[in-house]
């Protein structure tokens, strides 16, 4: 039908009472929109009107506007009153019905989009109308701000890190993968809309079109925690975790304070206080565990140069020597395989000197391989069986100090120590394993060297305040820093670069060595063959060592230096 002056354009098709007050319509207060059915009756009504629409649309719109003029309304006032702007309009059933028709209509998104960006008139040369872009963008900004603010408030507890969690177990409990899942999932205490927004703006349209495999999870995670830290200094779980990791990597104080100004980390001052707390907790844990777990103590010398930037008479650079010690706890007893038999030594009176030296090399090299493999796999049985060979080798190679050490160990193992002490030394005092892998053993003194490296290099004290006292306060925190660093590296693969080194391919080297062996025939018996030069002759230092132990009074000198009265007085500071 066409509108005319006698027809009220605000009239609507007759709606039966049962449809007017149907449950598909809005509630009396229009606050129950979330329960609107998937396809309300208003949508069907709008669709029928669109299908039945005939004639010029502009004429109908002009008729409606003309009628509005007659009743003293314009479009802004009409939309204001229709949109919950008047008490009577809120409760009137007819107005509620039409308002719901607009709110649930398929046309509403298109209407809003055209308000934001009106289409250019076909063939026109005028500048595109701004429409309602400023108002809509301001409104959208306020909506986004409200939504994000509510989501950030919901993860406040997740972002907190109490002081009692600044510990080994507390810091390593932070799992990046779990945190990404918690924040991105649509659940209570998460930030799904903020995550989706940051994920959208972190990828260009070109990247999305090409399906670039670029993960921005770490970037988004860091941004969210930066926002939380900016809102409250109590939301510091990520900054504390990142600060501890960077200190474990040896970051400087200025670099740490720079990152702190960006909201990424805690301050250098906090890190020093945290290390004091970690050190105190670590020492207290050691004091408790020595009463319940087997342990060994390793110590070694540490030489540290203390540098002074502005020297004075009472403040000059100096070089000090000290002792670093580490307590290793071994909660689980280590197992050992059966000791393998000793490798038979070849006869010393072989006539072919070159062939004999090749056998000596193979024998010694295999001993080295056996010992290295036994250490790596924690086989203390093979290590004990290797002690006589090492004794002969050290004695024949004129390594007097190592000879005495092995003699002392053999004496204690076979003559002086009771069975429980001997078992403890072999299974607890030779090797350590901090990884839990079957091939992750290494000598305790090597572990001590690693700790000294951390003290001298990675976590060295620097600047004018460097002192033994500062080093003493920081050192107990180093194991926690190392664990946090490894914990972080296991989660982010790019940080593992440089941790493992692949050996170059050995194929060409072995092929060349095989060719030399075949050509020289050093592994083939040739009677009367001799080394050409004196430097080419190799002594059997193992056999020489067995003879030197007795002929050169090595055993006698060792016993004379250990057989004397010893004081049992113990002085403790």
TrEMBL record:
What Pfam families would the database entry show?
DUF6589
Q: Superkingdom of the source?
A: Eukaryota
Q: Which residues form the DUF6589 domain?
A: 333-501
Q: Which residue windows are transmembrane per the record? A: none
InterPro entries xrefs: DUF6589
Segment Disordered: which positions?
1-36
Name the chain's protein.
DUF6589 domain-containing protein
